[in-house]
Fold these 3 entries.
Entry 1:
Amino acid sequence: MGRRERVRQKTQKHKQIKKLAKKLKPGGAWAASAAAAAVSRGKCLRFTPNERILVLGDGDLSFSAGLAEHVNNAEQVTATTFDAAKTTEEKYGAAFLHNAQRVRERGGSVLHGVDARRLQRTLRAAVARHQLPTKHAGPFDAVVFNFPHTGKQRSHLNKSLVANLVEDVPNVLATNGRMCVTIKLAPPYDRWDVPSMETDAMAFVRRLDFDSSVFPGYRHVTTEKGAKPLMKNAQKANNVAAPSTAATLALRKEESKCKTFVFQLRTSGAAAASAGGEEEMERREEQEEEQDPEKTRQRQDTQAALAALGWTL
């Protein structure tokens, strides 16, 4: 590298530092964003220690661990992942193991193999497999699903994931219970029109800001390992022990596009809950089992565990 190039790079670096300082000073762009975020935090998703909470699709369990710290008592928290424990560990490694420990240390429970598209059925099966008290199958005061995604870049499948949950969630909610779904208002997610998914049993009631700092240690992780991150600044801020002020503010700015949509159980409409295509899924599973004896054995074991609890699959 020649002298002229070194001088050019040094000059460019000084310009970047000056530009950053301008943004961070009172009244600067990032300072304004941080102030706006601070003001909006009163309208963010929050929970109380006495609420019974079910967390769905929590990847590395960092949200559930942060939630346990947020409420300071996780005895009422049931954290779940879509994948089996072994697969989840392969995807997220030590972070998953650490977060699972954080949840359990505060009294919470962790379940694997829970599918939001067939919530009541797979939740009961998971409770039976893990030999946990039946309270972990509901009813819940709140069901939370952050950034739902099937792992496939097919918008209609991901939209259907949320729609199916809205249909089935009344089966596990307590009277006046609520469901909270957080998405990023950017293509293609902003085209899902989540509020329009309300049903006879579930009413859309409000939209809240999302602030990850409410849940210490939370970070967004992708459904499939190595997939493109939803929030690149989140990855940068979370990959270091102590992110810089600039990185934190950039994350807050990016999170301002994330909103939580809250649905509440209509007391009079609880009986109108529908399984939403579950019969078709059952037929497909039966066809798969005919070709895979191991799946048949697993299903029989699950049925036996459920029967011991007085449930049916």
Entry 2:
Amino acid sequence: ILSEMLRSMAFQVTDAASGKDALQMVLLAEEADQPFDVAFIDWHMPDMDGMATARCLLTLQGVRIPHLVMVTAYGREEIIHDAHHVGFESILVKPVTPSVLFDAVIRAMGVGKEKEESVVRHEPFPLAHLEGIRGAKVLLVEDNDLNQQVAMELLTEAGLVPRLAENGSVAVDMVQEEPFDVVLMDMQMPVMDGLMATQAIRKLPGFGHLPILAMTANAMAVDREKCLKAGMNDHIPKPIHPEELFAALLRWVPSRRKPGYFPNQTQDVVVATVSSNFSGKKSSISDSLTGIPGLDVQAGIKRVLGKYATYESLLRKYVAGQQGVVALIRTHLAGHDKQDAERVAHTLKGVSGNIGAVRVQELASRIESAIKGGENEAEIDSLLMALDMELQPLLQALQWALEKRDRDQVPVANPVVIDWSVSRSLVARLESLLSEDDAEAANLFEQNRDLLLGLFGKTAEEIGKLIQNYDMEGALAALRQARQIHIE
């Protein structure tokens, strides 16, 4: 059953019925240059138990040894001690749940810098975990367009139905107009911030139990306390990590699936591999970004579930939106508007984290703290100078990489053979999703981009941009017009 869970999480899995079989499989995998990454080994097996199997594995010469995880029905201290002594990196006690199993894989894959370099996990989060909450309606309350895109794409990819409110005031109105299963609330927004919006929602009749989860780059204990005091249920740190977002949703959104989806039995031995390549061709944008100081490309791509096109889109928004941010902070400070200056620094911190701009993120965090803490002007000015010296070269390097990307993208003549019955069904489905304001339209469009370009040409590109900007009404109007011209 462990193998079934792992396969549902998109891992490649091989089963071994005994310790001896496992040893043989590891040797064969090495000969094929496809070594296993993680081995889950049962403690209690006939002939050769888990301890003996691990010892034999670790003595193999010229073989890349997988990370070892013990699976046992007994959590006795001596077993745990012996397992670690032998070389197991972690221990799972039966029954094993899907979430515990996934966490074990992630922990194992994070052990050892050498392994991290060769096994970069770009595959999407195992969305099978979220099967029980698919279709749940999520209200995202966020004012920044870059943060909006990250969150909306993650939620849509997970099979949830997100709606967007650009500030707290709009959110208060929207929760009264339609039912939501959960609210993801940014903290610092114009018009009405997250704390005020949450307090207003809690005062509404019947809204005392609606899950409201804070999404903020402020991770201090005092900030979490403010969230809870205002009536929020939980706290999700920014920049958004898919695993943390999805784990929080699983905690607070009631499951629609009946319990018992995964039985609580386990196989004797499961050897699993995690592919190091994201499905699909790697975008050349990643090559162009190599070597840019202060930019952790892998972290940025991981936050958007390995989608290079999405990451590129975020970079374009970042370059366009952060050009004058230092000057804007200075202007707010000169006008004694510390609250807005702090908010701009806070936003810069969050969006920089989203793309993996770690140095800018750190400086923006220090500036936000300095403004909030009432530091003297000289200290803040020094930090702003340091930020400008870090941010401007980053923006220039990103601009160059994006321009190079545009120059290198030469259209390839690749005519699409159009099946008109399929095309009509596709357009009808896309039209239905857009009319329902369903974010799943974005997935459908991307999956059928080539066909839609073949049908509608440049109009399809315009429709795609409208969907990407969550202008479903505009996209629907453009689609209907294109359908009348090209199909009807």
Entry 3:
Amino acid sequence: MRSGWLAETLTLRIDRLQALLRAVAGDLQVATGDEEAGLWHAAREFTWAPHELPLVKTPCNAVKLARLADALIRGAGDQTGDMRLRFSVAGNVAWLAWPGDLRGDALALDTILSQAGLPGLVLRGATGGPHIGAPIPQANAFYRRVKGVLDPQGRFSS
């Protein structure tokens, strides 16, 4: 978690957060200065995700987070150790470096995301298309109706 406050109150707030979170999370590490900058650089540049693995972004939420993580671990099978999973935006975005196939069988990431009702956007890796998982909004009838009202001439691409 990244937190920023006035310098005078930051230490007190961090102490309070640690006291609250220790009960459920155990030991916590506080990073500051260069260490903090390095952590956020790694997150932003995806250095945590092996370059040879496809990288996929999918929306998530607190309700689906545990089920998604469990399904991904089952789907990765004996390659679970190679999978990288990172959540951001308070658990509302999942970033996956996936060691298996993106499409093609029951253990493919496309199938896992579809079964979870989640769309995936492939940021890196060959897939035959940038979208996997549940249908993207453009395939949704409600989306098409709204777009038809707002852009009846079809001037703006989806």
